[in-house]
Amino acid sequence: MKIQFNTDKNIHGLEEFTAPMILLIETELKNYSSQITRIEVHLSDEDGIKDGIKAKRCLLEARLSGMNPIAVSSQSDTEEQAITEAIEKLKSSLETILGRLGNY
Questions:
Q1: What domains are there in the chain, each with its CATH number?
Q2: Structure pTM?
Q3: CA 48, CA 40: separation in Å to the nearest integer?
Q4: Closest by Cα among 75, 11, 62 to 34
Q5: How far are the Cα atoms of 37, 45, 91 from residue 76, in angstroms, in the given order?
Q6: Which of 10, 37, 71, 94 is the right S-S partner for 45, CB 3.0 to 4.6 Å?
Q7: CB < 8 Å & 24+ apart, contacts of 18-22
Q8: Using one digit for the tens of pLDDT, what is the confidence trace for 9-32?
Q9: Which DSSP symbol is given to 54?
Q10: Three-state DSSP class for 68?
Q11: Alpha-carbon span 3 to 28, nearest angstrom
């Protein structure tokens, strides 16, 4: 499972932030790693340089073997919270979709 990070121009310090987030994503999605070929993480700051409530947005897109991609998003006060909430949504979607197909 490959993990790719994409950010907008308002997200800074990505190098220090990415390694622990990749580990978190790998750990949380390890039960689905045989079905997932790639995860794309899109981080953005909806308010730009202003500090707003729920201004950080995370869109996770999971590319599954032989299936259409699954995308979920979450908005929160910090990048880490947005990623964590998006992971939970993605796990729920994967469980539902793969459960219906009998792949989980």
A1: 2-101 (3.30.160.100)
A2: 0.86
A3: 21
A4: 62
A5: 27, 10, 18
A6: 10
A7: 21/80, 21/83
A8: 877 666 777 889 999 999 999 999
A9: T
A10: coil
A11: 13
